[in-house]
Write a structure and sequence with these properties.
Largest sheet: 5 strands, antiparallel
Structural class: alpha+beta
Number of domains: 2
Helix content: 40-55%
Oligomer: single chain
Number of strands: 5
Shape: elongated
Order of helices and strands: HHHHHHEHEEHEE
Distance between the termini: 63 Å
Strand order of the largest sheet: 2-3-1-4-5
Radius of gyration: 23 Å
Length: 225
């Protein structure tokens, strides 16, 4: 029993190996983030997500070094990490792909497969960029609109913001609805294609004038209006 416990605490990775693995994960993570930025064409670009991809690759590398070849240690980490809950919804399938991309690269770096990590990062990243350039169908005119709406004071249960959307947008599509404040308030997210981009300030002003509408934000890539 004591021998098994000592095996759990026995780490065979040297400080130099840890440093090299982390630097490889950092380099590959930066490349993953670079390729994500070049291939992403959606309106919800987030610089925080870019940084997260880099750190995620490094953390995964650490996890793989801690696990090593020890099965008991692996089960212990799975149990410890199972308590983590993520409340942020991933709205774009490309974001999910790049999360797995960063995880896979971090795993390769963590077990010392540097060539696999670096070559895979470059090949997959270039493939993602080329596919985004050749097969992209996304309209660059689309914006991400987010606002809160509370209909608790409305007797008819109508949605007055729809008329404003129809007035200013060629088309609009709801992508997320979330209840907030434990009541009738909703946080709504739309993809909108404005008829006239120059009227975006007027569009936001008209929405803010509506009863029950608040926290109106309009995004285009990393720009904020």
């Amino acid at each position: 029993m004591l021998q098994d416990f000592n095996n759990v605490l026995n780490f065979s990775v040297s400080p130099l190996d840890v440093f090299i693995n982390l630097m490889t994960a950092l380099l590959c993570g930066l490349l993953v983030a670079f390729f994500y930025r070049k291939s992403y064409h959606g309106p919800g670009y987030s610089s925080t997500f870019i940084n997260t991809l880099v750190i995620l690759a490094m953390i995964t590398s650490v996890v793989m070094m801690v696990i090593g070849n020890n099965l008991a240690r692996a089960f212990g980490l799975v149990g410890a990490m199972s308590i983590v809950r993520f409340r942020t919804a991933v709205k774009d399938t490309q974001d999910i792909v790049f999360i797995f991309f960063a995880l896979a690269i971090g795993m390769a770096a963590g077990v010392g497969y540097y060539a696999i990590a670096l070559v895979s990062t470059i090949v997959i990243g270039i493939s993602a960029v080329l596919l985004s350039k050749s097969l992209v169908t996304y309209s660059r005119r689309e914006f991400l609109l987010q606002f809160s709406y509370d209909d608790s004071d409305e007797m008819n249960g109508g949605t007055p913001y729809v008329a404003v959307l129809q007035d200013f947008c060629r088309k609009y599509k709801i992508i997320n609805t979330k209840s907030i404040n434990g009541g009738g308030a909703l946080e709504l997210s739309y993809y909108v294609d404005l008829k006239n981009v120059r009227r975006n300030a007027e569009f936001i002003k008209e929405l803010r004038r509506l009863q029950g509408v608040s926290n109106v934000n309009l995004y285009f890539d990393d720009e904020y209006f």
